[in-house]
Amino acid sequence: MWTLKSWQGRLLPHPLPPGERLRSYATWCNAVEGNTTFYATPARSTVESWARQTAPDFRLVVKLPRSITHEGRLTGVDEEVRSFLETIEPLGPRAHALWIQLPGSFAPTDLGTLAGFLHRLPRSHRYAVEVRHRAFFDDARSARLLEGVLAGVGAEWVPFDTTTLFRSPPTSDSEREAWAKKPRMPLRSVALTDRPIVRYLGRDDTASTIEGWRHWVGTVTGWLREGRSPTVFIHTPDNADAPTLARRFHDDVRVLLPEVEPLPEPMPTEPLTLF
User: Fold this and answer.
1) How far apart are CA 178 and CA 120, in angstroms?
2) For residue 14, what are the domain limits?
3) Is residue 266 part of a domain?
4) Do 101 and 38 touch, CB atoms closer than 8 A?
5) CATH number of the domain within which 176 lies
6) What is the 3-state secondary structure (H, E, C) of 146-178?
7) 22 with 34: CB under 8 angstroms?
8) Rounded to 5 degrees, what angle do the CA atoms 46, 20, 38 make?
9) Residue-level pLDDT at 2
């Protein structure tokens, strides 16, 4: 999520070799969703490049490949998991959590499969699970059962907040595409661990996006006061200004909690000159 074309030359320097784009992004934000790993396990040399471009405290939330979560549905995939874990090993502490995004068809009746899968994973990593079946949100018993499975291995439940997107009809092509593809997820803001992860999807209109995240500013501030270390990802349908918005969210939290450290100054998009 650090190579978006619309960022090149506007938020990130251009031209910039692919092996330097994450380094530039990391001056904007101190965390990123490793979404590309969902489509295929990368080459180890690629992962080594990610590690070289980021500081040890940079947070990559790395998604497990769909061959494990969607095609294999967590069954008979031990060899694929082993290979994936070996590949991402160069990240070291940068692998903040391994993100297990499950398909919408993964229901409460599948919780036994999830429990078995999580218990087979090495404890050397943190795990975060994103579910999309409505029963986990609409049925209190199903939610409690999932929380119990996750608590048994210290895993987090990742909320994907799309309530702002679906609050009113789409007004742009990217919003219409998001309406067709993104899940209509109810709001959930309960942290299970000391490292909660939030995914928030706003609108292409900046004011609407900011208004929609007010709840999260208060929630994240509360988590910080409790001693937790949350990670928040800010999206819009076109993501054109996502890094700028992420910094704005960080600043909004700092208004309520000034002791939170500011983010670094972004790398300039143009080379510095003397005149």
Assistant:
1) 35
2) 5-256
3) no
4) yes
5) 3.20.20.410
6) HHHHHHCCCCEECCEECCCHHHCCCCCHHHHHH
7) no
8) 40
9) 84
Q: What is the pLDDT of residue 273?
A: 46
Q: Name the region of 56 (left: φ>0; alpha: ψ -120 to 50; beta: rest).
A: alpha
Output the pLDDT for position 83: 97
Q: Is residue 275 part of a domain?
A: no
CA angle 56, 152, 198 (to 5 degrees): 50
Other beta carbons within 10 angstroms of residue 55's beta carbon come to 12
Residue 272 has what pLDDT? 44
Residue 274 is predicted with a pLDDT of 43
> Which residues neighbour 249 within 8 Å (Cβ) at sequence distance 6 or greater?
213, 216, 217, 232, 234
81's CB contacts (< 8 A; 6+ apart) are: 64, 68, 120, 121
- Residue ranges, the chain, pLDDT below 50: 272-275
Tell whether 271 is covered by a domain.
Answer: no
- 23 in a structural domain: yes
Number of domains in the chain: 1
* Res 275: pLDDT: 42
The H-or-E segment that residue 221 falls in is helix 214-225
| Residue 63, φ and ψ in degrees, nearest 5 | -85, 135
Distance from C-alpha of 1 to C-alpha of 3, rounded to nearest angstrom = 6
Q: What is the pLDDT of residue 270?
A: 67
Q: What does the block give as tokens for 83?
A: 């290979």
Instruction: Quote the pLDDT of residue 112.
Output: 98
